[in-house]
């Protein structure tokens, strides 16, 4: 069973009134490539990480370190204060998938989360969260994001084709352009046997 954890951080910040967008694989399931997905509201780690780690600390043990790939994070702080302790933040460009966040805890180990870009549409984000939290999942974070992008392009192409179809007359294309109703022709047909 997949868990979605709504959470409002105690620390006042610009996202304080908004719930955390996080979905985790069911507890006790066999390890998959990803342990879930996180959909932050911005690309600011100093704002986003405190809420995430505050939720995960009770579930996974105190989060002590987080690593990211700097491709999608404009600023990577070395440390982020979180509910009475500090979480170290590191980065790996070549070694870490750009769409993945690694979280480390002294007590339990490591977790890998898909990071869904903040600008992602809600429908796409929901689909990605479900796929990333699947305990039987075999796709990497980048593979999931690439599939989502291909799906988005296909949907936009289809919408574009439908728009062109509609603008060119849709299913009525090729028919007379007159919009007046067709007139019924009524004629009296003489009986061929009449007058015989």
From TrEMBL:
InterPro entries: DUF5994. This is DUF5994 family protein.
